[in-house]
Predict the 3D structure of the following.
Amino acid sequence: MMNKVRLVAGREYLVRVRKRTFIIATLFTPIGIGLMALMAGYFASKGGAASKSIVFVDESKIFEASDPSSKTHTYHFSAEDINTLKDNYKEKYDLLVHIPPFEDMSQKSHQVQYFSEEKLSVVTITNLESAIGKAYKKYKIEQSSIDVDLYNSFNTSIQFEDGILLEKIAAGEEEANKSGKLSLIIGTILGGLMGFLMYMVIFIYGGMVMRSIMEEKINRIVEVMISSVKPFQLMLGKILGVGAVGLTQLAMWIILVPLILFVVQLVIGTNPEQSAELMEMAQNMNTGKADLDGFNVSQIISEFNGLNWFLIIPVFIIFFFGGYFIYSSMFAAIGSAIGDDMGEGQQLMIPIVIPVVIAFIMLQGVLQNPNGNMAVFGSMFPLFSPIIMPARLAFDPPIWQVILSIIILIASCIFFVWLAGKIYRVGILMYGKKVNFKELGKWLFYKA
Amino acid sequence: MNVLSIQGVTKQYDNYKAVNNVSFDVPKGSIFGLLGPNGAGKTSLIRIITRITGADSGSIILDGVPLANTKIREVGYMPEERGLYKKMKVGEQLMYLAQLRELDRKEAKNVIDHWMEKFDIASWWNKKIEELSKGMQQKIQFIATVMHNPSLIILDEPFTGLDPLNTNLIKDEIFRMNKAGTSIIFSTHRMEQVEEICKDIVLINAGQKILEGKVSEVKNQFKKNQFYIEYEGLNGIVSGASYDVISDNDHKALVKIKNEVSTNQVISDLINQGCQILKFEERLPSLNDIFISLIENKNDE
């Protein structure tokens, strides 16, 4: 029995892996991602471009008096008339900024004009606005005779320390279970990524199983095949073979994408001006302080290493296969029933599409509240859990939930494959019949 | 000794019986015709024999062993609706099918080489199936059906789409394998092929068996005492006490001999009329005639 399943799976795998389209998709997706990163980097650096020589005509001298400087650009101040400078600033400067007189202290906004050959990037504008804004704030404080130090002391930065879960202290695990803010951010990104990956896996490889079955039915190969292989073996072999193809492709991407992104970083990431300007912007934005300050690369790496990869990776692989099995067996059943007419079978796809889409929508809520009721429900319901559970892994979900979720998942896999097998064996030999759900239900009870 | 014994097999779909209490035996070493009009239940029955589907009731014994306990490789089946993986190479495809029929790789390679040489297509190993014509594909399918040397081969309309040359090639192989002891079930509605190839037949219609036996016996059973005569000396023969003339054209006549009358009596009556007989032979009904009259009678009921 297993011997034949292996033969079928082996053929399915080899035929697919040798296909030109597989090789192209496997190699070019990472290259495409790399190119996109390269282009994004290129445009960002072009837009935010190199250091500019900026001349200010500051009518009220407020900005000039604050003695400003920039890491990226060079600032110059001119006492010349704006109208004459407007015509000849290009000879010496890249950018002319005109700050009109500022008279009314109660004024909350102030219009500043600039003249430039090219449109300025958002980053440059934001930086200049905030630099000038700071100077005006300082000026206003001075004018209102408030002590600057006193004013600054009004600012209180509230920061949550790394939280410690009480129950874990009780269990004597003080060290390992801090859930810092950074780890939450990383968990959200990682969880979203894994959820999205599962979503893709279900449709790409599940669809592959379906098309493969339809092809066999339409080409009438199936009748030749099932005189030597049981329909169930044929279906199972197909699901396993395509699953192996998916795993191969995924493994290649996991290796190639970081590799190519690393290369891209080497090419564009060494542009110091650009990153300096971005850093400057981040620092200038008031909110930046709490969120990004203090998180440096080594912290992110250590936080990343601190994740429980020995739990995340194996559990992710279990859910990868579980989700794939459940959905691809549904795709297999539908494929066997549709056969010759794709159009008529569209309604049969609904029970596959709806749960995946619901799970995908739930994913967002789950990432915001990874241990809430919705998350727990989503982890237990087998049509949602392949998308929801992996997304929660980085948030240290209670281990009993992980185990229970896996048990339900495996039981559901067996149930769905069995159910699909019942429909499949009838469907593949049924031609020219319009199939609906009632019909599929009847097939379940046909004698083998 | 029977290679296949079918007892009271019934298969029901929804509310019609595709196979309705059918019983018959296929003698070992025979070429057996499974006949019936379209939709009679032939394919349903074959699918039960090949274990693609199960019967609702009844029993099937293959070579003395209940079907469920036999090895899949004991039966070779070439379905009417047959396809191959278009993108696969001929050699790979046959290797794959051979392994599914439980041959190991080495065995499979030897057998396939043997058959491809026999059909003079050894150079096709690396050709893709889609590059082959329909008739060429059919040769591959025939090889796939017989390569594991099954004791029972089931061929469903094996000659459709083949040119006369290839038809003969396959036909000769069928006869050769039959001589070597392989039993063959041949399903078709081409009656002239049945008369040429089969020793025994069963005829089913609307899921039920309506006729069974050796081809010669069946023909005798349905003979109408008709004789074909070629003669000279007269410009026409007239019906007599011993026979009725059915047709008479250009010195070729078809007569029906009355019951309880011997052929010698008829001949002597004809001679007495002054008829010089050149040819006198019994005209047995063709299977085609029997088939049509039986099916029409059934459908009229």
